[in-house]
Amino acid sequence: MKKILFIPVLLTLSWQFIFADTMPSGSIMYPFLDIAPSARAAALADSVCGLSGDPGSAFSNPSQLAGIGAPQVSLTYGKWFADTDYQNLSGATDLSFGSIGAQILYLNLGQFEKRDDTGVLLDGKMNAYNIAATFAYALKPMARLSAGAAIKIIGQSMADSSRATAAFDAGAQYKFDKISVGFALNNLGAAPGYGFPITIRSGASSIIDLAAAHKITLGLDAKYEFQDELTLSMGAEYAYSDTVFARLGYRLRSGSYQYDVITGFTAGAGVKAGGFVFDYALVPFGDLGLTQRATVSYVFYQKPPNAPEKQQETQPEQTKELMKRYNAVKADPKNMKAWASLAKEYYALGSVSYALTTVTEALKISPKNAELNKLKEEYKKRAGTGTGRTSADK
Question: Which end of the chain is less congested by CB atoms within 10 angstroms, N or C?
Fold first, then answer.
């Protein structure tokens, strides 16, 4: 497990040496492309390349959108430095041919004094902003492998001057039994002279189940930007009953911008209520002060596949429980306990075939899971007898 967790560092270091002499140099004109897209990502120090997807995944690793499930939207507002602020609106959903996502990023740089070419102060103020629209597509060519790509349309405006260009992202993610590994190339193909933060990113994540309602998610990322700047990020998220979250991260950056020990820390929290998720992050930037970010997300209702209509009408309490367990699987497909809970609920409703299908799909992700294999054998025996389980069996 330790060897796999250090894969992102080794991958990114190797790519750093390969590209060190070929990447363009120059100042970054679009620094907002390097801002974490959500409060959760910011609180984890952006160590999210190997995590399960959310609508903001199109920003860093588009392959994470694969299998995202029910339609989701999120809105992020961040207070950056001085009078600048940052907004991100994103959405994603599964389709029959894969998964798609889109987002709009906007950085308001505030107002500046107007001056002519000689530096003479003119009347009035001028506004400046950066904006980017991203469209992403992802699919699962294999049960454990996801791949994705995205196109960005980026613009910058100051006073009466504006410019725009396009760039591309590509990424992949592979899920082992307990660890996921991701890799991405960001901001490729921009026109020369735009100074994009072309980025090579890799990461790994793991979910540790502590007890019935407690789990910890760990993330480790390595990110190399073309101006010879390597960033190592790590983050941990504690979840209670998948409704309350506490997050802590740390990042260490080489190159031109050095952090002190305290500045490297990030922190945040979140809470889930119904289909809503509320996240908050606090990120220090040394002498520049603290930046804050808040995200509101919503997962739309989605009916479980082949849910029995008659049982929804005659057992409404059971149906609510079925929906709860189904949405838990969609929110965290790597949670084997959630898969087992969904299968048991189908079985309790008398749907042995759906219960068997559920554990079969889950075993594609975690083939050695003892509980799921036990359930599969039990449901196969019941299916073989041609009998189902009804409420009278409980």
Answer: C
